[in-house]
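Everyone, describe these structure tokens:
***
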Amino acid sequence: MTEWQTSGCELVTIDDEIILAAARRQNLYPEAVSQAESRGTGRKLEVDFHRFEQTDAVRDLIREAILATADEGDVVIVAHAASFALADRESVLRVLVTASTERRLRRLSEAEGLDQKSAEKVLKESDKGRDAYLKRFYGVGRELPTHYDLVVNTDRFAPEEAVETIVQAAATVDPRTLPAAT
């Protein structure tokens, strides 16, 4: 969990906490729950020593954890394709933050210290993994901008500007997210 402030508004970002919450629901090992998100996982997972669960049941726990976390309010869920789990909720702003392949490659190279060829391979695998995840969890054959309420291209915006744009858009969904007037 990461807390940060922008425009006087405190935001909590959630990622790994989703897996931990899903694991706690059924007293499973978080590593086993995390495995349910992986490609190539079979129909059953070993969730404890010689205890097996249907992979789809474990995936349902992840979706339930996303819903429960959203119910707490004032959170930004940054992974697990939460936008798809929360698609029917009017009180949620579903945001896709994206950039051109060139920009993404440059950021990946800088962040991980990779050469161009290695960065291309990592990015290609990451995108392939995301596509497979969406298909496995939500039956999405092709991710579209229309799956989101807001698409922010960070080729055009600095990270701080992107955050401000998202916070302002969130205020149209839930006015409580607007910073207090001074």
User: Anything to note?
Assistant: The radius of gyration is 18 Å. The first strand starts at residue 2 and ends at 6. Residues 1-80 form one domain. The chain has a mean pLDDT of 86.
